[in-house]
Amino acid sequence: MPYIEEEIASQPQMWRQAAALLSSGSVAGLPEPGERIAVIGCGTSQFMAQTYARLREETGKGESDAFQASEFPLARRYDRVLAITRTGTTTEVVRTLDAIGDSTPTTVFTAEPTSDVVGLAKHAVILDFANERSVVQTRFATSTIALLRAHLGQDVEALAADAEAALALPVPREAFDTRQFTFLGTGWTVGLAHEAAHKLRESTQSWTESYAGMEYRHGANCVADERTLAWTFGEPAPNLVEDVRATGATVEVGERDALVELVRVHQLAVELAAAKGLDVDNPRNLTRSVILT
């Protein structure tokens, strides 16, 4: 059995552990209300950064920006910078934290307690219990978001229970006859829509795209037809579902929390990869960490 199957199934319990870690009082360096912050990452971690930054603003906790680590504006002033990196060895994150130095308080989220970034950041939040053997990142990313959502006062236990129920559901069967996948989000769920497309693309070599829902009608609909599956994350924009269906596409309306919908996409990625005869733990051209020389 691929490692990723157990890692996907364990996510609800990992979320509970992340929330318990926060409740233990051992986590330091999280943003205070009103602080102006930036969150950085690469790949999946970048999409988690986008998700948290927008959610923090939407809950009224303070101005929050998200950047690809390689594109972080060093001249811009923040009260705190957060970095998300599973292995702690991603070159762009290491370089950016090193460049920030002591000029701004930094906090890193990582699964590797002895990694390079731990010594570069002022604070480290270690989620080693959520580490993965698969190259494909699932539970570390979602556990980081679970901890941060708990810090925003959201109910992670209810989220975990919903995820357990969703894991028992079948994946959309239309996906196996799909030529092109589109994921649509709104507000804080746009980052998760991007991650869903990213995950399905790297795991199954599928043609995937992702957009803020209102952007769909600005060109993305040109590629939609009866072999397109569009999946909404969060409350769809008015008339969006009808407009997508008018192209001939099938629409999977995500009725659960967007983080739970992402878990369903994780399941789909595994089943679709198996149907294609792909090694879902080791997608082609990918490694657990991008280390540049």
From TrEMBL:
Record Pfam families: SIS
GO BP term, example: carbohydrate derivative metabolic process
One of the record's GO molecular function terms: isomerase activity
UniProt superkingdom: Bacteria
Gene3D superfamilies the UniProt entry points to: Glucose-6-phosphate isomerase like protein, domain 1
SUPFAM superfamilies given in the database record: SIS domain (SSF53697)
Residue ranges constituting the SIS domain according to the UniProt record: 35-147
Protein name stated in the entry: Sugar isomerase
Assigned keywords, A-Z: Isomerase
